[in-house]
Design a protein that fits this description.
Elements: E1 5-11, H1 18-31, E2 36-39, E3 42-44, H2 53-60, H3 68-71, E4 74-76, H4 82-89, H5 95-101, E5 109-113, H6 128-135, E6 139-144, H7 150-163, E7 168-174, H8 179-182, E8 190-192, H9 196-206, H10 208-213
Parallel strand pairs: 1-5, 1-6, 2-5, 3-4, 6-7, 7-8
Length: 219
């Protein structure tokens, strides 16, 4: 059913590689014959060019004709947490408005990318994980695995998501190997960033429309 399915991409921290992974996932879903709409509702550090996160997402999902305002309604120039960027701009972000902006778009699948890390502030009272919980969609956690401490940061983000009841479809380790993370991640699917076919297959299998047609789990 058009507009029924959503998937969320979150990060263990800022610059984990969310947009890179999201774009590759979008491209692979399009190859499967799916239409994909995109949404990154709040962006800070925004520069209006073809390398901005919204522009890259829109380019990957070229089949969906959405405007920049529809994809990213709240765009702020200051590269700080969204709540602070909004405060500096004299804007108040209402949580319910952000959730509404992430409503399923004019495509079979809507991919939503959050800002910063899982616990990054979104509004004065909410963090990104509150948005993920409200969206109640299969979620991909992107972990920057390139630095000392990345396993701790990634596992902490994963634990927060699990504790809040989020369906973590997969953890994608970017800029580093997945094996060290996988040893501690229980039964969660942990992938290297190049395992894009497995990621697309996992997401497709967990979408509500797919589960309706073919009940069961994919590992």
């Amino acid at each position: 059913m058009k507009g029924r399915d959503r998937v969320v991409v979150v990060g263990s921290g800022t610059n984990a590689g969310k947009t890179f992974v999201a774009c590759r996932l979008i491209e692979d879903l399009v190859v499967q014959g799916r239409t994909v709409a995109v949404c990154k509702p709040v962006v800070s550090g925004f520069v209006d060019d073809d390398q901005s996160d919204p522009a890259r997402l829109m380019a990957a999902a070229s089949s969906a004709s959405l405007s920049l305002q529809q994809v990213s309604p709240w765009r702020f120039a200051d590269a700080v947490a969204p709540d602070e960027a909004a405060r500096r701009a004299g804007v108040t972000i209402q949580f319910d408005d952000v959730v509404a902006a992430c409503a399923a778009g004019p495509a079979e699948i809507t991919l939503i990318e959050t800002a910063g890390g899982v616990m990054s502030p979104l509004t004065e009272q909410h963090t990104q994980v509150d948005l993920v919980v409200a969206l109640a969609a299969p979620t991909v956690l992107v972990v920057d695995a390139s630095y000392l401490g990345s396993i701790s940061h990634g596992l902490s983000a994963w634990q927060v998501l699990k504790a809040r009841g989020v369906v973590v479809a997969a953890v994608v380790c970017n800029r580093g190997p997945s094996e060290p993370f996988a040893r501690f991640a229980g039964d969660t699917l942990v992938l290297d960033v190049d395992e894009r076919e497995r990621l697309a297959a996992r997401i497709t299998a967990l979408l509500p429309s797919s589960l309706f047609q073919q009940p069961g789990r994919v590992s």
